[in-house]
Amino acid sequence: METVGIAIIAVGVALMVFAIATRRRTKAATAAITSGQEARVADISVERPRPAVSAFHVVGQEAQVTFDVPLAADGPDDLMKELLVNEALEVTREKRHHLPIDQVTQVVAFAGREEVTEVGRVELPAPGKLPPPLTGAAVLDLSAVDIDPLQEQFEGRTDATPQTSSASAGEGDLRPVGQELRLPRAVDVGLRAQGIDPGQMTAGELVRGTLSVFGYAITQEDDHQYRADRAGSSTMIFEVPHEAGGYQELSETAIRDFTMRFLASKADRGMLVSDKFGPFEVYERERNDSRVRFVTRERLQNFLDGLALS
């Protein structure tokens, strides 16, 4: 209970710091434009995750940017609105090189899938004049965290007992993992901004999306194998999905496949991620090789809490 409380507090602090920093940058840029001064211009890395644009139109005096971002049932919160409005400015900046925006006085951000909703707008001080680029203007980005968030998941693990499913897994369907997890708000916003719907995502999408928020470069190597790189450290990620009606527990075949893939990958660490439950064997594998971890269904919450504590 104490550990979970600390995790929630840690994520809350990270979210609050990011929100304050983003708001300060937005206000600083607006003030600079109004006074005719230049705000600090920061390089925006092409590696950062960005929300996908599904449409861009100039309608009258509005530049309208629509993002393929799944919104929560109660709509976007203030942080999501600010992130998408800032990203809409960056999209408009990129489009201005081959589209006339001299008459544009407002940039409007829309988002959604089944139903598109306006999430926010910003007034330009003069037609066609955009603010300078802002640091972290698009997606919740915790890459500035100095430590390697995955390190504690591997080197600092001190489980005294096996962390496996308490019930025998049979055959049948499993609910999407997001419907069973307590997602920190920072993670929820970061996933949605990347186009991942927390209510329908797989375990693989959750892990890859969360690591992207923490500044890992994710590279797909084949249908089920990925590589996560950050600060000179590499982690091979092998995903084992659950097929509808299939067996709910991770098979020995999948575990052996993961082991062989990890050895061939030459990565520093290996992580198997699955919507399925984990058998006792995964505990034995981890105890024998500290470089591997199994993030199975019953371990996903601890994975998220561990990143928050880091």
Secondary-structure blueprint of this entry?
Elements: H1 2-35, E1 53-59, E2 62-67, H2 78-95, E3 106-111, E4 117-123, H3 151-154, H4 185-193, H5 203-213, E5 217-220, E6 225-230, E7 233-240, H6 252-265, E8 269-274, H7 281-288, E9 292-295, H8 300-309
Parallel strand pairs: 2-3, 7-8, 8-9
Antiparallel strand pairs: 1-2, 3-4, 5-6, 6-7
Helix pairs in contact: 1-2, 1-8
For the structure shown, list the relevant keywords:
310 residues, elongated, disordered N terminus, single chain, 4-stranded mixed β-sheet, 5-stranded mixed β-sheet, alpha/beta
Low-pLDDT stretches are: 1-11, 13-46
Largest sheet: 5 strands, mixed
Estimate the helix proportion, in percent: 25-40%
Number of beta-strand segments: 9
The side-by-side strand order for the widest beta sheet comes to 5-6-7-8-9
Secondary-structure element series: HEEHEEHHHEEEHEHEH
* Alpha carbon gap, first and last residue: 17 Å
Kindly estimate the percentage of residues that lie in beta strands according to DSSP: 15-25%
Query: How does the helix and strand content classify structurally?
Result: alpha/beta
Q: What is the approximate shape? A: elongated
What is the number of helices? 8
Mean pLDDT: 80
What gyration radius follows from the Cα positions, in whole Å? 21 Å
What this model shows, in words?
- This protein is α/β, with parallel strands linked by helices and 310 residues long.
- 35% of the residues lie in helices and 17% in strands.
- The chain has eight helices and nine strands.
- The strands form two sheets. Strands 5-6-7-8-9 form a five-stranded mixed beta sheet, with helices on both faces. Strands 1-2-3-4 form a four-stranded mixed beta sheet, covered by helices on one side.
- A hairpin with a 5-residue loop joins strand 3 and strand 4.
- Helix 1 packs across helix 2 and helix 1 packs across helix 8.
- The longest helix is centred in the first third of the chain and has 34 residues.
- The protein is elongated and about 65 Å long.
- The N terminus is likely disordered.
